[in-house]
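Lab notebook, page 48
Experiment: co-folding of the full assembly
Goal: obtain a model of how the components sit together before planning crosslinking
Operator: M.T.
Materials (sequences as entered):
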Amino acid sequence: GAGVSQSPSNKVTEKGKDVELRCDPISGHTALYWYRQSLGQGLEFLIYFQGNSAPDKSGLPSDRFSAERTGGSVSTLTIQRTQQEDSAVYLCASMGFNTDTQYFGPGTRLTVL
Amino acid sequence: AQSVTQPDIHITVSEGASLELRCNYSYGATPYLFWYVQSPGQGLQLLLKYFSGDTLVQGIKGFEAEFKRSQSSFNLRKPSVHWSDAAEYFCAVGGNTGGFKTIFGAGTRLFVKA
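Observation: model returned without errors.
Model output:
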């Protein structure tokens, strides 16, 4: 498959636990985005990676959130000490160099009990 | 500040009727504008985009949108709605300043009645 994939598709965790969400972008895409979609809300920008440049972390809601992108490909979004308000669908998107269209993955639905 | 406003949280139209979804944006530079659709349980799919040129753009599934700079609007239209169009629609604005960061609106949920 040539699309963006995300894992797991669903994650249920207990308050206070750490979680890791994975995104596999389309091969060769240089840009990678993370968004959060809370129930009934639009997409909230979290973080943006472009090639080897420093990521734009301006959307991360707190220092409990972090993300990394290894080898310019796979990305992991980590949420430490999860809170109930972190419950949402986390979407990843990738975009090719010098193009303008983001391709979205199916998302990871995170539920914090 | 960059922002996107979709004034209608939800809209209900009859099958076969015309549709217009509103989108207003605020952006300090030349905007790139997008409409995405999210069907239940599905990821986001790009319907259409505007960067420059003809202000009326055509997209997939029979959708079109018109960019009106004077009104800071990019409304989505379809002349005849099908039941399968029931979904959530997101307007977004982005650009090449400081990287290609995209701001999304809160979405409009479309209901189609028979």
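Interpretation: Chain A has a mean pLDDT of 91.
Next step: discuss with group before ordering constructs.
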